[in-house]
Amino acid sequence: MTLRIPRRGLAQAFALIVILMIDRAVSPQFFNLHLQDGRLFGSVIDVLNRGTPVALLSLGMVLVIATGGIDLSVGAVMAIAGATAASLADTHSLPVVIASALGVGLVCGLWNGILVAVLRIQPIVATLILMVAGRGIAQLITEGRIVTFSSPDLVWMGNGAVFGLPMPIVIATGMLLVTAAVVRGTALGLLIEATGGNARASELSGVGTRAMILSVYVWCGLCASLAGVIAAADIMGADANNAGLWLELDAILAVVIGGTSLFGGRFSLVLAVAGALIIQAMNTGILLSGYPPELNLLVKAVVVLAVLLAQSPRLGDLSRFTARWRRTKP
Amino acid sequence: MTKSFGALKALQDVDFTLGDGEIHALLGENGAGKSTLIKVVTGVFARDAGSVRLADREIAPRSAKDAVDAGIATVYQEVNLLPNLSVAQNLYLGRQPTRFGVVREAEMRRRAHALLLDYGLDIDVGAPLGTYSVAVQHITAIARAVDLSARVLILDEPTASLDRHEVEILFRVMRKLAADGIGIVFVSHFLDQVYEICNRVTVLRNGRLIGTREITDLPRLDLIRMMLGRELAETTDERAVSQPDTARELCVSFKGYGKQGYLVPFDLELRRGEVVGLAGLLGSGRTETARLVFGAERADSGEATVDGKAIRLNSPRDAARLGFGYCPEERKTEGIVADLTVRENIVLALQARRGLHRPLSRREQDEIAMRYIRMLDIRPPDPERPIGLLSGGNQQKALLARWLATSPKLLVLDEPTRGIDVGAHAEIIRLVRELCEQGLALLVISSELDEIVTYSNRVIVLRDRAHVEELKGEAVEVSSILAAIAADGEPVHEAAS
Prior knowledge:
The structure holds 2 protein chains of 2 kinds. Chain A is mainly alpha-helical. Chain A has helices at 4-8, 10-26, 43-66, 74-89, 94-118, 123-142, 152-159, 167-185, 188-197, 199-204, 209-235, 247-257, 269-289, 294-311, 313-328; strands at 34-36, 39-41, 147-148, 161-162, 165-166, 237-238. Chain A has 2 domains: 39-290, ABC transporter involved in vitamin B12 uptake, BtuC, CATH 1.10.3470; 295-330. Chain A has 15 helices and 6 strands. In chain A, helix 4 (74-89) packs antiparallel against helix 5, helix 4 packs parallel to helix 6 (123-142) and helix 4 crosses helix 11. The longest helix of chain A is centred in the C-terminal third of the chain and has 27 residues, at 209-235. Chain A is globular, with a radius of gyration of 20 Å. Chain B is α/β, with parallel strands linked by helices. Chain B has helices at 34-41, 64-70, 87-92, 105-118, 134-147, 164-179, 191-197, 220-228, 233-236, 286-293, 316-321, 331-335, 342-354, 362-376, 392-404, 422-437, 449-455, 478-486, and strands spanning 3-5, 8-11, 23-27, 52-54, 57-59, 72-75, 98-99, 102-103, 152-156, 183-187, 200-205, 208-214, 250-259, 263-271, 275-279, 301-306, 309-310, 324-327, 410-414, 441-445, 458-463, 466-472. Chain B has a 6-stranded mixed β-sheet with strand order 6-9-10-3-11-12, sandwiched between helices. In chain B, strands 18-19-20-15-21-22 form a 6-stranded mixed β-sheet, with helices on both faces. A 4-stranded antiparallel β-sheet of chain B has the order 14-13-16-17. In chain B, helix 13 (342-354) packs across helix 14 (362-376). Chain B is elongated, with a radius of gyration of 25 Å. The relative contact order of chain B is 0.11. The A-B interface holds A 185-188, 190-191, 193-194, 197-198, 200-208, 265-266 and B 294, 296, 315-317, 319-321, 326, 328, 333-340, 344, 347-349, 351-360, 402.
C-alpha cells in the first residue's frame, strides 16, 4: 500500500498543487501563517479546517462506494448528530454528548446497512429514505428551532486547538488514521475491494459480503455523525435545516476525485481525503479571489466533468488500447 | 462463416441452410457457437468471413433492426417485450394504427385479438403482458415477430421455462408457422423436443460445424456423440491412474440431498484421493449438483456429512469453512475479481476463511502467490498484475490456486477447461490428477467426455435434473457414458425420499 499510493495519487497531488498555486496567485498571503492565542491562523489552515466535514464524510463514503454502493443520507445524519449534541451539550458532560451523537450516527448507519445488505434495496434508494427523513428527525430533536449551546467543552471541539492545530483538523486526521488502521490493518480492505469488484465471486470464495456491506454503512454513519458534531460545535448550535446540506454530494465528489470508481472495487482513503481538500481549496480560492461565490458551483461542475471524463470506460478502453498497442510494438 | 474474438475462434467455417417451412434444430453445448451463429446472422456481431443469403439475395445485416427488416426475426429465452404494457400494445408497439395522430386503441385491440386467435390464443389483449404466463408471452413475441413479415424465425431456448402443456401450445404454433412456409431455427437442449418437432438438426462443437442431418436418420446415441464427441486425442492415451478403491477414506457424503424444482434428490459419496466426474448434457443438473454441494443453493431435503459428522451447508461461506472449494463455470462473472491483482485473487478465499482480524501480512501474501504462480506456472509470473488481463487458462489456474491455498478437503471444478487453449487444457488435466494423488477429493464437471474418462475413478451420469447412473472402474468409458446419457426411461438410481 505504501508503494501504491504515490503512483496512484499523482493526478490528485498535481491537481491539489495547481489549485493551491492558483489560490496563491489570487491571494498573495495565501501561504502566510501566524500564531494567535495558541492557534495557527492562515488561509491554508482555513482550507484544512473548513475541509474537515467533507473529509470526514468522504472517509465513510469511500468505503461505501468501494462496495459499489452510495450513501446519500450523510448530510442528514450530520444534522441529526448535530442536533443531538447541541440539545445535550449544556446538560451533560462532553463524553456523554459525543457518545450519544456518535451512537445516533451508528444507528443511522445500521439502518442503511440493513436496508442495503439484508433487504437488498438499491443503495441509492435505500439511503434516499434517510436523506429525506433524517432532516425531519433532526427537526423533531430541535423542536423546529435552532438550538444553541454555550458548553465550553463542546465549543472547544470546534474552535479549540492542540499544538496550534485547530481541533477539527486534529479530529479528522485522527479519524483518517483510525480508519486506515481498521481497514488496512485488518483484512477488511481487501475483502471490501473484492466485494465491490465482484460480489458474486467474493460470495463464492467464502467472503461474508453481507457483513462487509453492513459494516461500511455503519462506519459511514459514524463518520457522518462526527462531522455533524464538529459542524455544530463550530457554529455553537444546531440548524436542522441547513447543517450538512448538500454535503453528501461533496463527499461523493471527493471520493470520485480520489480515484475510486462508482462501480466499486479499488479505493484509497488518503486520496478521498485529498479529494475533499481539493474541493475546499477551490471553494476558499474563489472566496479569496473576490469572484461571486455563485461561480463556485460552476467551477465544481467543470471539475466533476473533467474527473468523470478521465474515468469514463470509453476513455479507459482507448488508453488501454493504446497501451496494448505500445506493448505489442517493442 | 467465421467469427473470432481475440485469439479464440468462436465460429469457424460454419455452413447452415434453412429451407422454407422447415423446423431446424441448432444444437451444441455451452460455448459451441450457437449464440454466436445467431448473433452473426441477426447482425448483432459483424462476421469476419462468409455470407448470409435469404432466398436468392445476399443480405448483410449490420444491426438487429437490419435483420428484422430483411425478414429474420429472433425470439430469445428472456422475452424482450414490455410486461407493463398491454398485449395489444406490445404487438403493435411502434406501428399502432392511428387516426389524426391519435392511437386507435379499440382498433388495435380488435386486430391484436384476431391475430392471436390465429395462434389459438383467446385472451384479453387489453391486460398487461406481464400478467400472462411465459408461454403466452412467448407466443406474443412470436406473433409480433412474424407479423413484422418474418420469413425466418429464430427461437433461442423458447421452452426452457415452459411446462409440458405450454410446450404443446408453442409446438402447435410452430407447426402452423412452418406450414405457412416460415423457416424456423429451434435452439434447445431438450433432445426429446428436438425429436418431436424438428425436421433436421445441425450440431456445432467448439465453433465448428459437426454436421447437419435429417432427424429421422439420426439415432439419439449418434446425436449425443456428435454433441459431446471425441477430441483432444493427446490426452486420451493415458487412462485413469488407478481403479476405484472403496477402502479409500470417506470424506464427504450426501444422502437424499436435493431441492424442489432444482435437482432431484441424490446420494453422493466422495472419498479422499478420488475423482468423481459428472457427465450429462447441458441443463441435466451437473452445475446444479455442484452448487448444492458448495452451498451456493440451499437444499431443502437430505443431509450432508463430513468425516461422519452432520453439517450445515447454507452458504458458500459454510462450505469454505468446512474445507470445500468451488471453481465455477462462469469464470468471469463468478470466479475472478478482475480489477484485483493475481496475488489478491489467490489469497481471497484463504483470507475470507481466516477472518478479518487475522490478516495475512503482505509478505505472507507474496509468498503464497509466488508459490502457486510457480507451482501452476501462471503466466506472466507477476503477482501484481490485475487478473483480468490474464488469459483464460491462467485465470483458471489462479482460481485453482485460490482454493489450493486453503488446503481444501474437497474441490468442485465446473468445466475447468472451458474456453482454454489446448496447451493449458492438458496442463489443467495434469493438475487435476496430481491433486487427486495428494489425497484431495475432487468432483469435476465437464462436457468433454474424453477428459472425464481420463481422470475419473467414477462417473455419475445425469439426465433431466437427476443422477441416473453411476459408472465405476472398467465401465468408465466414453461409449458407456454416451449410452447412459441417451438411455430413455426411468432413472436407474432413484434416491430414497
